[in-house]
Hints:
Elements: H1 3-18, H2 21-40, H3 45-61, H4 72-104, H5 111-129, H6 133-144, H7 149-156, H8 160-177, H9 182-192
Amino acid sequence: MNDKQSTYDSMMQRVAEYDDEDAFKYIFDDLYAPLCLYARRMVPPGAAEDIAQEVFVDLWENRNDIIIETSLKGWLLTGTRNRCLNYIKRQAVRDRYNSYAATAFDISVRPDDLLGVNELELRLEQTLANMREEWRVAFVMSQMKHAKTAEIAQHLGVSERSVERFRKKAMEIIEHEMKDFAPLIITLASIAQ
């Protein structure tokens, strides 16, 4: 074992036994940059720095429980390598999902669509406000509150058949009033699925 390695191991012993922050700072200052360089051989620079920091955080948080069988430097390198491999696996999964999502969902939302949502809501509110009371109630209770036909009939004091007619009439009016928004509605529906 060389002198530097012996120094790291004795510093780590002080960290573990006495929570010696100065000894930990010595280890960090001396080994952080080499760990970053080592990690950069496997992952992007930003991720390499994060991984090196995570390894040191893990070292500090578990300083009383860690059993180092080889050397502190070996433990840090092994921890860094394992975290890099986990990062690479997560990235591969993320890339596969993004690739799948890009081919499975051919949805493009334009900025105009986002502005159109406000107009769509306003038009729906106006259409509902101008509708006969029982048609509006039948539509709102069934489509927005997911009430059963029997519940709506009881609420309105009419037959279930009347509720179906009211709902159908409300849908016809809404479809007529919203026909200008058909492309936006289709896009929103496909996103919601």
